[in-house]
Amino acid sequence: MPHDPELLAETRAWLSKAAADLRAAQAMRELDPPLLEAAVFHCQQAAEKALKGFLTWHQVSFRKTHNLEEVGEQCLRLDPSLKAEIDRAAPLTEYAWKFRYPGDPGAPTSEEADEAIACACQVHAAVLSRLPGEARA
Predict the structure, then answer these.
(1) Cβ atoms of residues 11 and 31 within 8 Å
(2) What's the pLDDT score for residue 114?
(3) Sorting pLDDT into bands at 50, 70 and 90, what band is 109?
(4) Among 31, 88, 103, 119, which residue has the fewest nearby CB atoms (within 10 Å)?
C-alpha cells in the first residue's frame, strides 16, 4: 500500500533540513580557521531535525523545542532501540544556545566539534535506517 504523499513530503522535509545542517557543520569544521561554534550549532540542529522527522513519520506531534532529551524521549516511546543514539545526542542540546551570543563562555574545541559531528551523523543514520526508503530525503 502506498504511503500518504503529504506524510512522505513532511518527513522528507525534516530529513532534508537535517542533512543540510550536517553538511553545514562539516563545512564549518573544514574552514581555515574553522568556525567551531557554527559547526556544533548545526550538529544540534541536525540531530533535532532528524528526530523530529522520525516523529513526523510516526505522526507524533511535538513541541517547538531544541531539547534533544525531550524529543528523544518521544522517539524512545516508539523505538527503544534508539536509546544509545539519543543518550549520546542529548548533550548536543546546549549547542542550540551556547556560544551563540556575545559574552558566552569560550568556544568549543576541535575535539568537541568532531564528536558533535560524529554524533549528529550517527543520529541521522539511525533515523534513516528505521524509515522506509520513500521517506528518506
Answers:
(1) no
(2) 98
(3) very high
(4) 103
42: containing domain:
5-132
Query: How many whole angstroms from its chain centre is CA 46?
Result: 3
Nearest CA among 69, 57, 65 for reference residue 129 = 57
pLDDT at 100 over 90: no
CATH of residue 112's domain is 1.20.120.330
Q: Is residue 78 part of a domain?
A: yes
Torsion of CA 55, 65, 107, 39, to 10 degrees: 40
The three three-digit cell numbers of residue 79, written as one number: 523505538
Residue 80 in domain = yes
Radius of gyration for the alpha carbons in the chain, expressed in angstroms and rounded: 15
> What is the distance in angstroms between the CA of the first residue and the CA of the last residue of the chain?
20
Has residue 20 been placed in a domain?
yes
Query: What's the average model confidence in pLDDT over 60-71?
Result: 97
Average pLDDT over residues 74-88: 98
Domain count, the chain: 1
Residue 137 included in any domain: no
Give residues with Cβ within 8 angstroms of 55, minimum separation 6. Answer: 61, 62, 71, 74, 75, 78
